[in-house]
Design goal:
Helices cover 69% and strands 1% of the residues. It is mainly α. Strands 1-2 form a two-stranded antiparallel sheet. Helix 5 packs antiparallel against helix 6. The radius of gyration is 29 Å and the shape is flat. 26% of the residues are buried.
Amino acid sequence: MTAESTPALVQSADTDGGPAQPGPPAARGPRARNTRAYLRYMAGKIAGAVVSLFAVLVTSFFLFRLIPSDPVKQMTGGRRVSAEQLASLRRQFGLDLPLWQQFTDYVGDALTGDFGMSYQFHSPVIGKIAEAVPATLLLTGTAYVLYTALGIWLGTRTAWRNGSRSDRFNTAFALTLYSVPSFWLGLLLIIVFSVGLGPIPGLFPTGGLESGGETGFAYIIDVAHHLVLPVITLVAVGYAQTLLVMRSSLLDEMGSDYLTTARAKGLRDDLVRRRHAVPNAMLPTFTLMFVNLGHVVAGQILVETVFSWPGLGGLFYQALSVPDLPLVQGLFFVFATAVILANTLADLLYPLLDPRVGR
């Protein structure tokens, strides 16, 4: 047995031919190196998300205390209240404590999922948030699916036909919608299609989730009827953003050598687009999809307010008008947490789309 024939073993240095000793371990393969690199990448992203969540927790406490308003006086509704009663209310809600003690109590409770009691609803904040989540998910979730699919489809078609009449029209229309404030567009839709304008009758309700009194299939139709205008508002702005990002990233790929090679091999143009160009152009759109996914939970505050939608956005507006500090802080933390988790999930999935990421 020689060292050349047994690379994992080395002969003893003794001249009496002692037993072979184990040599250095074999070099690790590329798969093991890639796994270690991905684990380090994943640990860094998760650590960054944890730091961001703590920063949000601190920000949510101090930011809303800068509002020049006394929540206790707001709760009294302008009625004449003695100084003793005001002091009692402040003591009841812990507003008489030093700011540092309020902060430590808030952080300790928030880490256990307890955001305190709402000033205006006199119920746990987490309960009020849980009540509003389904309405927000129904509205923004429906809009998210529609504008993501529409934006990717139209963005791919316009980029592939760059310079055509349809490309110029779709791009100009998307830029116009993207620059329009969502609340203004919502108000315009209410004026035209709810109130009625000229020969156009009022076809849809002005707001709310339901008319009330409906059950079964009639209830589903009623909710869908109320969904139309707010969903159109969200889709109009969301699809425009997705279209512009998808179009831009696909245009960057269209001059690549691998597409020329694919065409030289005789692949049809639609196969070149679907199998090669679009998958490689999806990374920026993939990022946008996950950012928007976080906003599905966060809701759209202005749109929900305009359409009196009983979701998290409308609840945030109500809480901010008092200000209901525990409710505002809890909602702000939920909104930011949803966006941070969505971005972190996107970062963790990037290496599956592009192996160069994370190395």
